[in-house]
Amino acid sequence: MNLDFSQIVPYIPFMLEGIWVTLKFVFFAIILGAILGTILALFKIGSIKPLRWFADAYTSIFRGTPLILQLMIIYYSIPQLTGYDISPFLSAILAFGLNSSAYISEIIRAGIQAVDKGQMEAAQALGIPYRAMMKDIILPQALKNILPALMNEFITLTKESAIVSTIGYLDLMRRAQVVGSDLFRNFEPLLFVGLIYWCLVMGLTVLGRLFERRLKLSD
């Protein structure tokens, strides 16, 4: 086996730029997923049947089909159907955000239902409006229970972000492919980028544990 990492040294800054490019769309995708996921979770535990059916159908579709298929549909079908040329960056945010919202909705729903029912009954007995009850009483308690699952979702999105290279988005994976094509050597740049992904995941894992520890100390 003939390995020569010296050849990728001039390309290291180019590949390192992919860290910011990757985390940027993952950050916006997780925000979109969290907002939509919270709304879907409230639909699922609500009393309005059409909204419950919609939320369940939405979750079934996005959890039951491959993420790469959803990305391809958004990137290639939107221009075909609307005539609007959507960018790879926006396509990535939409695909990952919509997909993540389906998983986050289940996480939040489980977290809300894990909160002691007496909390909700007491709030209703005091005449606290439903929206205020959820925002100020139920969701803050649920967040403490679901934080590890939410961090796992963020880590999963970071790892799965590599598939955006299939639509030409210059993330970490795509930059490794560009360097490999330029040097006619793929193993070294892929291994280097793999190390970066590992560092990102380990960093997010440590960050998640710190948040968990802080929440436990605040109890």
UniProtKB/TrEMBL annotation:
Residues 19-208 form the ABC transmembrane type-1 domain. One of its GO terms (molecular function) is transmembrane transporter activity. Pfam families: BPD_transp_1. GO terms for cellular component: ATP-binding cassette (ABC) transporter complex. The keyword Phosphoprotein does not apply. It is found in: Cell membrane. GO terms for biological process: amino acid transport. Its main location: membrane. The chain crosses the membrane at residues 20-43, 55-78, 190-211. It is a multi-pass membrane protein. Belongs to the binding-protein-dependent transport system permease family. HisMQ subfamily. PANTHER family: GLUTAMINE TRANSPORT SYSTEM PERMEASE PROTEIN GLNP (PTHR30614:SF20), MEMBRANE COMPONENT OF AMINO ACID ABC TRANSPORTER (PTHR30614). This is Arginine transport system permease protein ArtQ.
